[in-house]
């Protein structure tokens, strides 16, 4: 259809054309989405066949199970709020960045290893 033809049409004809185009586009989008979902399902099938136990742990989600990482013990703590700790991995927490900028050293915030291990192993009691 040429632009002149569209400009010559009145409002009602243009509106009907708009509705018809919207309907056709919605049908085509739905069909394309269905086709893409079929292709995605085919691509995911070999992964599920390779790991039988992975399909059992994440039943229905379509995602492989998350890799289990070991628990990381905190190495540094905030003396102003001892519940705030940092393991030494990733981005430094704000309280540590502020303290380091004010002249403190990282070693000042280190959790003592002997005190930490006795608390963890004995539930807060000290060994004799």
From TrEMBL:
InterPro entries the UniProt entry points to: H-NS_C_dom, H-NS_C_dom_sf
Instruction: Name the chain's protein.
Output: DNA-binding protein H-NS
Native source species: Bradyrhizobium yuanmingense
The record, for Pfam families, names:
Histone_HNS
Q: Which UniProt keywords apply?
A: DNA-binding
According to the UniProt record, where is the region Disordered? 40-74, 106-128
User: Domain DNA-binding protein H-NS-like C-terminal spans what residues?
Assistant: 66-111
Tell me the superkingdom of the source: Bacteria
What broad taxonomic lineage does this protein's source fall under?
A: Bacteria, Pseudomonadati, Pseudomonadota, Alphaproteobacteria, Hyphomicrobiales
A Gene Ontology molecular-function term?
DNA binding
Ranges annotated as biased composition (Low complexity)? 50-64
């Amino acid at each position: 259809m040429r632009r002149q033809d569209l400009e010559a049409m009145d409002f009602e004809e243009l509106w009907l054309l708009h509705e018809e185009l919207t309907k056709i586009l919605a049908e085509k989008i739905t069909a394309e989405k269905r086709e893409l979902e079929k292709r995605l399902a085919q691509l995911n099938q070999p992964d599920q066949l390779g790991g039988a136990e992975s399909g059992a742990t994440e039943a229905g989600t379509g995602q492989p199970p998350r890799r289990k990482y070991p628990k990381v013990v905190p190495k540094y703590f905030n003396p102003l709020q001892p519940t705030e700790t940092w393991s030494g991995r990733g981005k430094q927490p704000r309280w540590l960045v502020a303290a380091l900028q004010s002249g403190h050293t990282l070693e000042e915030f280190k959790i003592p290893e002997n005190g930490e291990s006795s608390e963890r192993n004995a539930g807060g009691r000290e060994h004799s």
